[in-house]
Design a protein that fits this description.
single chain; alpha+beta; Cytochrome Bc1 Complex, Chain D, domain 2; two-stranded antiparallel ribbon; 6 strands; binds heme C
Length: about 250
Amino acid sequence: MTRKIILTVLLFVPGLLSAAGGTSLLYTTPHINETDRAAIQRGARIFVNYCLTCHSAEYMRYKRVADDLGISEDIMKKNLMFASDKIHEGMVVAIEADDARRWFGVLPPDLSVIARARTREWLYNYFMTFYRDDKSPVGVNNATFPGVAMPNVLWELQGWQEPVYEVHTNAEGEEERTIVGMKLIEPGKQTAKEFKQTIRDLVTFMVYMAEPAELERHRLGFWVLAFLFVLLMISYALKREYWRDVH
Ligand code: HEC
């Protein structure tokens, strides 16, 4: 009996894991430096302008962003907040939950810690792989999140793309199509290179948002090392001083 249970578990666990992993990622994610303040700031701007209509980031307070990025409350208010937002509050969502459910069928999730739930690689690929799909009821699909209910909100910047398929025959002799890349069919306001940078900045902000203490840790880390170095120098000088008479 127990053996049967163990066997069943062993048989299913790998399957479950790969199912959760979903499709493999199309793009290699560029290096994301979550302590790069300029990138975080550019990403924050995209986030505020394109995402807060539907998603909240309740645990991320504007004041905290301003302090971490070393920008004044005035600049924060002017560039990164809507007039109705309060500096001490979290990033709240603009649409009503009921409307969201009616329009999308699901509630857009809070994004405060999404980078921890999904990983930076997944996020980078998610934003890079929206494509036009006439078969989908919303006209849009996503190679990283097939059947997604989120519209392609950055289409103006990126333009529209279509998947590149690879056709192969499976064991049953049926033709199968897998997406192996993306092809731009209608250019947007940004070049492909600029758009990649936009997504990189956006993901940088999201990684920072999931772990704002990281920035503080790096700052502290520097001073801790500097302190240890000074201590080392003093110890060394002392050692020389003490041993001088011995030799
Ligand atoms: C018009 C509304 C809308 C806007 C604007 C929008 N989203 Fe979404 N988003 C959704 C909906 C709805 C879902 C849920 C999709 C689903 O579960 O099928 C979603 C899902 C997501 C997910 C996946 C969450 C998960 O399940 O892991 C991420 C990440 C995300 N959005 C990030 C963003 C970012 C970043 C922006 C801004 C660039 C943005 N969204 C703008 C509606 C929106």
